[in-house]
């Protein structure tokens, strides 16, 4: 709740003080920030009658001086240039500039220089620089997410830009929450260490006045971790509603694009899945596929009853009642058809890709032991014709991550089989993954086989049996959260930045995962928050991953590394 | 949530830069390129970040943005919002009138009925007029201005829809309560006039009510008739006049009922029209980013349509006209020649 409400509050404040007809000008990143929390009808209520992008507005020549322009953009150099151009030929009556992050002095100077017509009324910083999709989950939607996997020497300026964007996003989050945290990071990740140190520098040195908030009894904790510590979660297939939609179809800014699936009515081609606006989705987003089916059936039955009662209209009162209830009826109808379409589509995909079979093996690889049996299962599925290339790749990757050190011969056999069967497979991708996220590189106990306690727990779980084979996997994040709750997060693995220290347990924890989060982890966080353990967790990442996106990042990083290696080889 | 106001710093920079820029413009309008170059080279060291305290009073020419007059459709939209405000105040009055009419009165409820009717009519008229004006707001042509118009239209349509729903709810609750009251018409504490008018009401409410209620009303009727018999003399005259008014109010209330039905129908029509304009909340159409993308694509489509229309118009009208005229010319020429030959 807290993330969505803070962004909404910022937007409310922006629009509230300015009276009259307004036009809201956004850039390509803030448009996601705004549209995920604010709807068009709410904008209309605030008298915002036009929404434009800052790129397209430079092109048009119409002068609309009866409108007041409210700019909400990121303070990047491109945006400042575009603003300069627009301020030199102002099209609107008034200009109110709101930036979503900290402005540098030079940027203010440039703007002041170009404001010859004195068209600018105010310049403010409103720190809504993140995309708040769910109550406790945010993302930064960064395009070149793969840069965290590349060592700094290869592309130092790219990595610097990446790190700057992340630091800006985290700073904006804490400014919106009005907190200054104690920072810890994952020791084994250079990128995480760099980001943690730069954030600490920003919050405690450069802008210490801005971050000087009222101290609460226990400071909140910012934990910066790396995706490569848990490469298993993005590779798994998901079976809970929100995660499944993202995995199979793709969820971007809470929107699902169904245009690739033919023959859908026009209003179902793009749908919105937001827990704020859709009560059914809110109660079902973390349920597994079977339960969703039943709940949807119940919803359809309810709807059919309402539809039937609307059919016999005999008297004037019935007519009046129908017209009264019509908007709700229409809304219900739209909602029902949206969920039915989604679930139908996902069932079709599950059927076509034989995901039940594949996912069972995946979950076994991720959770249970037995190298021999696992090898058998993976080989069978590789031989199976109807399993798609991407699923084969995932299976081999999961096997490799788990049994990296055991039986290298069989591992090589699997690699060869994969290369021979999948023509589009880029050779060496699995090896690249192992280099990035192999057993030596990982801090946490991913498979529960390092720590004696974890081994015992796994055995107990194996004996007890699981409720649902397909959802038995718990992301590593769950264990991390548990350690924090118990106050047992090891300093060796997750050191503090500088001389920070935390007494006791924090009450608010923000976990930032460099490289991206998944909806399974977001579900884990939401369920943990629901247990009211006294600690509130917020999860954020540079992007929201599904298996396709994660593999794309790996391929991109591999390509860059290869070209860098060949470049240095040539030069020596 | 934290914010930071940079306006002061911005204004400080702007003022200092303005006074730096002003001498430069003065010298530019002066002699020539030589001096211009000199002044620009001098200017850079002048561009320090410290504020210049002495401001040039006369030379600061504010290139102020001429705030032009807004386009005429803004007047239309303002008119509509004024009408909506008026309708809102009248609805408040209507609510009060409803409450007053529902209270048990000693007198005839006729003035209240009249007032209620007139208010309802006024409100429906205002809503209808606003709706017609709203249609006028629809713009043609893909321009940014048309998007603003469309959005203004949408927001006013939402308001109108809400108002009409409120009006219908008020009307239906009023009718329901009225009916309930008339059912309890056997309240013996009512005075004679009250009871007789109740009896009248009971009579023509037969048209609306079911069997069960009719028997209850009949019982009430009997009681009131008995009481009338007791006070025969006075009531003789009264019953005559009451019968007369009975007929009138019968027709009146049938009409009244018909009017209510009519206004319900009218409002249903308005709602249907408005629902085409109003955005459904929670759907994809309610998303800002979807609308921005759509605008881009519809602008392109609109441009294509415009070009096509221009082409057809050009090809259609003029060619036909020209050909008709040419043919006429030929005919006249032929006639002239024939006239010359044969005369």
Q: Could you please describe the fold and organization of this structure?
A:
The complex is a heterodimer of chains A (572) and B (343). Chain A has 572 residues and is of the alpha/beta class. Chain A is built from 22 helices and 14 strands. In chain A, the strands form 3 sheets. A 6-stranded mixed β-sheet of chain A has the order 6-7-14-13-9-8, sandwiched between helices. In chain A, strands 2-1-3-4-5 form a 5-stranded parallel β-sheet. Chain B has 343 residues and is mainly alpha-helical. In chain B, 78% of the residues lie in helices and 1% in strands. Chain B has helices spanning 7-28, 33-46, 72-102, 110-136, 144-183, 192-205, 211-230, 232-277, 288-342, and one strand at residues 3-5. In chain B, helix 1 (7-28) runs antiparallel to helix 2 (33-46) and helix 3 (72-102) runs parallel beside helix 5 (144-183). Chain B is flat and about 100 Å long. The termini of chain B are far apart. The chains are: A alpha/beta (572), B mainly alpha (343). At the A-B interface, helix 1, helix 2, helix 3, strand 2 and strand 3 of A face strand 1, helix 1, helix 5, helix 8 and helix 9 of B.
């Amino acid at each position: 709740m807290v993330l969505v409400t803070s962004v909404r509050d910022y937007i409310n404040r922006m629009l509230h003080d300015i009276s009259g007809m307004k036009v809201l000008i956004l850039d390509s990143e803030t448009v996601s920030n705004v549209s995920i929390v604010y709807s068009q009808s709410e904008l209309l209520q605030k008298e915002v009658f036009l929404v434009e992008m800052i790129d397209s507005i430079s092109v048009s020549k119409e002068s609309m001086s009866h409108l007041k322009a409210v700019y909400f953009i990121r303070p990047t150099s491109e945006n400042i240039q575009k603003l300069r151009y627009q301020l030199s030929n102002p099209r609107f009556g008034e200009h109110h500039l709101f930036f979503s992050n900290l402005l540098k002095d030079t940027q203010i100077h440039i703007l002041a220089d170009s404001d010859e017509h004195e068209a600018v009324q105010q310049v403010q910083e409103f720190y809504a620089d993140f995309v708040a999709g769910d109550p406790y989950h945010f993302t930064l939607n960064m395009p070149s997410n793969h840069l965290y996997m590349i060592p700094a020497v290869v592309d130092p300026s790219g990595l610097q830009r990446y790190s700057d964007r992340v630091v800006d996003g985290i700073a904006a989050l804490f400014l919106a929450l009005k907190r200054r945290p104690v920072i810890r990071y994952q020791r084994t990740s250079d990128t995480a260490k760099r980001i943690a140190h730069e954030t600490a520098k920003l919050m405690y040195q450069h802008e210490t006045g801005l971050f000087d908030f009222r101290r609460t009894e226990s400071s909140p904790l910012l934990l910066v971790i790396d995706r490569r510590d848990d490469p298993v979660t993005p590779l798994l297939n998901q079976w809970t509603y929100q995660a499944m939609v993202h995995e199979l179809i793709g969820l971007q800014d809470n929107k699902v694009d169904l245009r690739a699936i033919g023959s859908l009515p026009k209003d179902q081609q793009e749908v919105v899945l937001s827990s704020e606006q859709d009560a059914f989705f809110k109660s079902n987003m973390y349920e597994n596929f079977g339960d969703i089916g039943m709940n949807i059936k119940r919803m359809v039955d309810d709807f059919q009853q309402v539809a039937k009662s609307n059919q016999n209209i005999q008297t004037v009162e019935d007519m009046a009642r129908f017209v009264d209830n019509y908007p709700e009826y229409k809304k219900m109808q739209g909602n029902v058809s949206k969920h039915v379409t989604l679930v139908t589509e996902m069932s079709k995909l599950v059927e076509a890709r034989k995901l039940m079979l594949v996912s069972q093996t995946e979950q076994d690889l991720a959770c249970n032991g037995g190298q021999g049996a696992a090898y058998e299962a993976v080989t069978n599925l590789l031989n199976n014709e109807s399993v798609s290339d991407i699923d084969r790749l995932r299976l081999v990757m999961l096997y490799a991550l788990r049994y990296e050190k055991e039986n290298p011969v069989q591992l090589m056999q699997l690699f060869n089989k994969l290369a021979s069967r999948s023509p589009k497979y880029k050779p060496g991708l699995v090896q690249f993954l192992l280099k990035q996220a192999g057993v030596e590189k990982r801090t946490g106990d991913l498979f529960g086989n390092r720590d004696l306690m974890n081994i015992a727990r796994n055995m107990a779980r194996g004996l007890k049996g699981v409720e649902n084979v397909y959802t038995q996997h718990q992301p590593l994040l769950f264990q991390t959260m548990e350690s924090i709750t118990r106050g047992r997060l090891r300093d060796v693995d997750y050191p503090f930045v500088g001389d920070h220290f935390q007494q006791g347990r924090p009450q608010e924890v923000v976990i930032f995962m460099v490289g991206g989060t998944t909806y399974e982890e977001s579900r884990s966080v939401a369920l943990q928050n629901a247990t009211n353990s006294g600690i509130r967790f917020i999860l954020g990442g540079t992007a929201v991953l599904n298996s396709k996106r994660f593999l794309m990042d790996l391929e991109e990083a591999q390509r860059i590394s290869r070209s860098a290696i060949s470049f240095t080889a040539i030069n020596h | 949530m934290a914010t930071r106001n940079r306006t002061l710093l911005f204004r400080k920079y702007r003022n200092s830069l303005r006074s730096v820029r002003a001498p430069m413009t003065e010298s530019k309008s002066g002699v020539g390129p030589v001096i211009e170059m000199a002044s620009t080279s001098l200017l850079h060291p002048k561009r320090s970040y410290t504020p210049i305290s002495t401001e040039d009073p006369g030379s600061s020419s504010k290139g102020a943005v001429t705030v032009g007059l807004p386009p005429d459709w803004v007047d239309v939209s303002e008119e509509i919002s004024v009408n909506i405000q008026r309708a809102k105040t009248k609805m408040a009055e209507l609510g009060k009138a409803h409450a007053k009419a529902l209270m048990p009165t000693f007198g005839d409820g006729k003035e209240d009925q009249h007032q209620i009717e007139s208010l309802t009519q006024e409100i429906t008229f205002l809503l209808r007029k606003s709706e017609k004006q709203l249609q006028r707001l629809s713009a043609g042509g893909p321009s940014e201005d048309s998007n603003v118009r469309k959005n203004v239209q949408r927001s006013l349509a939402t308001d109108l829809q809400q108002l009409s729903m409120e009006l219908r709810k008020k009307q239906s609750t009023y009718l329901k309560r009225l009916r309930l009251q008339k059912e309890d018409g056997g309240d013996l504490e009512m005075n004679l006039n009250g009871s007789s008018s109740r009896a009248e009401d009971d009579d023509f409410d037969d048209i609306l009510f079911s069997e069960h209620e009719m028997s209850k009303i009949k019982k009430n009727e009997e009681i009131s008739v008995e009481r009338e018999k007791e006070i025969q003399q006075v009531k003789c005259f009264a019953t005559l006049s009451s019968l007369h008014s009975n007929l009138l109010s019968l027709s009146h209330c049938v009409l009244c009922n018909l009017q209510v039905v009519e206004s319900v129908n009218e409002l249903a029509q308005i709602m249907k029209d408005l629902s085409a304009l109003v955005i459904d909340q929670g759907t994809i159409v309610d998303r800002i980013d979807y609308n921005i993308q759509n605008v881009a694509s519809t602008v392109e489509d609109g441009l294509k349509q415009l070009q096509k229309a221009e082409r057809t118009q050009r090809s259609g009208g003029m060619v036909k006209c020209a050909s008709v005229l040419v043919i006429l010319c030929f005919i006249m020429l032929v006639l002239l020649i024939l006239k010359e030959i044969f005369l």
